[in-house]
Structures are given as structure tokens and as C-alpha cells.
Design brief:
mainly alpha, elongated, signal, 2 domains
Length: about 260
């Protein structure tokens, strides 16, 4: 039954935007919206074009999905954009499956969705410290890094604002931990997440162009104001930005 459902979704993708009546079109959109809430992962995967990290069992259907969505994109940019906004984006809020939501964060076609809404949702996920947030935040953050890297007009502010949003949770999360007698910074959720973010950023530095790299320097006062014990993690980023001995000396001097 579930395999049949996946096949139906793949077939419907082929007819999207090609029906002879509004009624038929609405029926297709309705089925796709329901599919975005399906608990069977291959059905969710069928709504996205990417094919990495999939099981052997679903590889064939995913290949077909990628093909159908590529055809849809080339035949009607408007319909494809509607599909991303209405269907793919919906999976980010899947009611029961964190696996489905992770898949959506990894594979959503961000260039055709509402960037403001996507960014707000990423910021929201990154600042959550419940089971959902702990599972999803890193993938959401990676998506924002990808957008920052690929979009020339995208400012580093999208990263800074996420970091500040996470930091704003310190009082009601980390300080509560301290109130319970926990003085180890590395056991504090907000501190640990900021530290992890610095590690992630450091791992991506080499993939950015020079202009984007320079913007990373704006993170310095934000991190040091939050917690000076993160200076070591920050230094790793700044050293990787440095292009010369003089740059390195300036960086180290600013950290003193």
C-alpha cells in the first residue's frame, strides 16, 4: 500500500499544471498536501529532487522524483515555485516525523521558496532546545550556511542573527542549569550550541570566496561579549580567514 502511494505521488507530479480543469488540479494539490504529512519516508522523499542518503529500496522512486520535478521546473517555473512553497515547505512542519523534517531541511529547493519564511523557520529551529530542536537545528543551520555561500547578495547577518537568537536563550536555559549546581560550561546547552556553531563555521571557511570570508570577522565582538572562553574556537575561524602574516598579527592583537 505504501509503495503504491509513492508511485501515485510520482505519477501526479507528472500531471501537475497539465490538467484540463481547476477541479482536477485542486484534487492533485490536495493529495500532494496530504503526502507532505505522510509517515512513510519514501513518500516524503518523492516530494524532493535530491537523491543523496537514500535507501536502496527507494532509490528508483527517488530517481523518478528528481526527473519529474526537473521536468516540472523546466516546463513551468511558476508551478514549480508553488510546489516548493506549498508542499516542500510544509514538510518542514511534519506533524510526527523528525526524519521527514530533516529530509526537508536537507533537500528543500530554497531558491524557489519564500526566503524570509525559510530563514525565520531556521532561526526558530536553531533556538529550540527540546528534542525537536536538538535534532533539527544543525541541518537548518547548514542550510543557512549554504544560502549564504551561494547567494552573492546574502549578508553574513543571517548567520549573526541566528547566533544572537540562540544566545538570547542563555538566561532561561543555561542559567537554570547553573541554578541546579552545574558550573561546567560544556554541559550548558546554549554555550555548547554556540561552540558547535563555531566549529561548523570553521569547517566551512575554505569553501567561501574572499569577500564572504572577510565578513566572518564581524562575529568576533558577538562571541567575545557572549563568553570569552570561546576565544579559542573563534581564533580557529579567524586564523583560517587570514591571508597574510600581517592579517594574523592583527587578528591576534584584536583578541588580546
Amino acid at each position: 500500500h505504501q509503495h503504491l502511494h509513492t508511485s501515485i505521488i510520482l505519477t501526479l507530479l507528472n500531471f501537475l499544471g497539465k490538467t484540463f480543469s481547476d477541479e482536477d488540479e485542486n484534487i492533485i494539490w490536495g493529495i500532494l498536501e496530504e503526502a507532505a504529512k505522510d509517515e512513510y519516508l519514501p513518500v516524503i522523499q518523492a516530494l524532493f529532487a535530491a537523491q543523496r542518503g537514500i535507501s536502496r529500496r527507494s532509490r528508483f522512486s527517488k530517481g523518478k522524483s528528481g526527473s519529474q520535478l526537473s521536468k516540472l521546473k523546466s516546463s513551468s517555473e511558476e508551478t514549480f515555485e508553488r510546489f516548493v512553497k506549498k508542499i516542500q515547505f510544509k514538510v518542514l512542519d511534519h506533524p510526527t516525523s523528525l526524519e521527514a523534517r530533516l529530509w526537508a531541511w536537507s533537500n528543500i529547493d530554497y531558491k524557489h521558496c519564500d526566503m524570509k519564511k525559510l530563514y525565520e523557520k531556521a532561526q526558530e529551529e536553531c533556538a529550540h532546545f527540546d528534542k525537536e530542536g536538538n535534532t533539527l537545528w544543525e541541518q537548518a543551520f547548514e542550510k543557512m550556511i549554504l544560502i549564504y555561500k551561494e547567494e552573492k547578495t546574502c549578508s553574513f547577518d543571517i548567520i549573526i542573527d541566528i547566533i544572537k537568537k540562540i544566545m538570547s536563550r542563555r538566561e532561561d536555559i543555561d542559567l537554570n542549569e547553573n541554578g541546579n549546581g552545574n558550573d561546567n560550561r560544556h554541559d550548558l546547552p546554549v554555550y555548547h550550541r554556540i561552540q558547535r556553531i563555531l566549529t561548523i563555521l570553521a569547517s566551512h571557511i575554505k569553501t567561501f570566496d574572499e569577500k564572504k570570508k572577510v565578513e566572518f570577522q564581524s562575529i568576533t565582538p558577538v562571541i567575545l561579549q557572549f563568553d570569552k572562553t570561546l576565544a579559542y574556537n573563534l581564533t580557529i575561524i579567524l586564523i583560517r580567514i587570514a591571508e597574510s602574516k600581517e592579517d594574523l598579527e592583527d587578528i591576534l592583537q584584536n583578541l588580546e
